[in-house]
Write a structure and sequence with these properties.
globular, 6 helices, about 210 residues
C-alpha cells in the first residue's frame, strides 16, 4: 500500500480528486495518511476531515526563521511515514532538505504544459492569465517529480486542453482542472502505486 502525504494551500480540489479516485478504486493500493496545509482555515482541511484523513497546519508564519519551518516540515513529513509526497495546490517552495530526503518521491501538479508558463511567479490564476495574454491555443497540466529547481523535475504525465476563443482566465482555470489536473494527478499516483512509474530511493530516516 502506497502511503501518501498531501500538501495543500487552498481549497483542495486536487486533493478531492485523489480522495474520490481512491474511494472508487481508480487509484489502486494507495492511501492518504496525512494532509498538511500551510494556511489555517482553508477548505482543503475540511475536505480531509470529511474523508476521515488526519490533517494539520504547519505555516512558515509560525516560525521566526524560514529554516526553522523547513526543518519542522521535514520532521513532520518523516513522522507521517509517507512513501510519496503529493503537492496538490501547494504554494510553499519545498525546502532543499526535503527534496534531498525524498529524491523522486515528491510529485507536483502544475496547471500548464511545462516548460511553458512555469517557474517563479507562475502559479494559480496567473498561469492562465499569462497563457491568454500570449494567445496560445492549447494549454493543459503537467505532473512532474520535484527537484531543487522550481517546476523543473522529470515530467511524468501531461494532458493538453484546447483554449476556446473569448474564455476568461477564471473559466480556463476551471476547464484545465476538470479536463487535465483531476485526471492526470490521480493517474500518476495510480501508476506509481502499481510500480509502473518507479520512485527514487527510500525516504531518509533521521537518527
Amino acid at each position: 500500500m502506497l502511503k501518501l502525504t498531501v500538501l495543500v494551500s487552498g481549497g483542495g480540489t486536487n486533493l478531492q480528486a485523489i480522495i474520490d479516485r481512491i474511494e472508487d478504486g481508480t487509484i489502486h493500493d494507495a492511501e492518504i495518511v496525512r494532509v498538511i496545509s500551510n494556511n489555517p482555515g482553508v477548505y482543503a482541511l475540511e475536505r480531509a476531515g470529511k474523508a476521515g484523513i488526519p490533517a494539520e497546519v504547519l505555516s512558515p508564519k509560525d516560525f521566526e526563521e524560514r529554516e526553522q519551518f523547513n526543518e519542522a516540515l521535514l520532521a513532520k513529513l518523516q513522522e507521517t511515514g509517507a512513501d510519496l509526497i503529493v503537492l496538490a495546490g501547494c504554494l510553499v517552495a519545498i525546502p532543499p532538505q526535503v527534496v534531498k530526503a525524498y529524491p523522486n518521491r515528491i510529485i507536483n501538479i502544475h496547471p500548464a504544459l511545462i516548460p511553458s508558463f512555469c517557474g517563479k511567479g507562475y502559479y494559480g490564476l496567473r498561469v492562465h492569465e499569462k497563457a491568454l495574454e500570449r494567445g496560445v491555443k492549447v494549454t493543459g497540466a503537467t505532473v512532474h517529480f520535484v527537484d531543487e529547481d522550481l517546476d523543473h523535475g522529470k515530467i511524468l504525465l501531461q494532458k493538453a486542453v484546447e483554449i476556446p476563443e473569448g474564455i476568461t482566465a477564471k473559466k480556463l482555470q476551471k476547464k484545465v482542472m476538470e479536463e487535465a489536473e483531476w485526471v492526470i494527478l490521480p493517474k500518476a499516483i495510480d501508476l506509481i502505486a502499481q510500480g509502473k512509474i518507479p520512485l527514487g530511493l527510500a525516504p531518509e530516516k533521521t537518527v
